[in-house]
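Quick one, tokens below:
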């Protein structure tokens, strides 16, 4: 267990525990901001979300996948992948092709425009993270995973389903558009100060 910083004499009432909690909150905020900034850059430069680019990259790796295979390889639910593929198809980046031998089977394939986007776009944030994370010693990786699980529990977020990707909001845009329950005035804060 790490040693708690001593009380701050210049800020009466702020204990070492408070400062440690603030340091953890700042780290969480940095993570959230890094994901958000990466997503905004992708959206601004390519007009695509992180999950859409990840989907394109996975299709390129698999060359031709059916939507179920794509969902499994991405760790997403099939309806979410269907929505992503719909949007990519509308942009002319992928096509759905029925198999000649069995018309019930549909394959998702990149178009030339989709392949160009994949070749030009930067690696998704989680690919960079996974590469760096894999370079850490196993015991360090396990400790980080355990500590993050503790943070999830402290935030009472165990019941939130999450795909193994770093992207703004949900991979399912319908979830991002859900109304948020209004908070009483005493619980609201101005996000511009965060």
């Amino acid at each position: 267990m790490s040693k708690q910083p001593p009380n701050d004499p210049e800020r009466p009432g702020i204990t070492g525990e408070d400062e440690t909690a603030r340091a953890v909150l700042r780290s969480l905020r940095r993570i959230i901001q890094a994901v958000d900034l990466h997503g905004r850059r992708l959206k601004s430069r390519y007009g695509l979300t992180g999950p859409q680019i990840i989907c394109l990259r996975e299709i390129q790796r698999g060359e031709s996948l059916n939507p179920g295979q794509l969902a499994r390889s991405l760790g997403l639910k099939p309806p979410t992948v269907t929505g992503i593929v719909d949007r990519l198809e509308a942009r002319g980046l992928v096509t759905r092709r029925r198999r000649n031998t069995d018309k019930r089977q549909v394959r998702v394939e990149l178009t030339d425009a989709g392949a160009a986007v994949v070749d030009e776009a930067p690696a998704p944030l989680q690919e960079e993270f996974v590469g760096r994370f894999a370079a850490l010693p196993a015991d360090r990786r396990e400790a980080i995973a355990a500590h993050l699980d503790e943070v999830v529990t402290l935030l009472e977020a165990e019941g939130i389903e999450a795909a193994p990707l770093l992207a703004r909001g949900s991979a399912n845009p319908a979830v991002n558009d859900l109304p948020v329950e209004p908070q009483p005035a005493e619980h609201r804060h101005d996000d511009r100060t965060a």
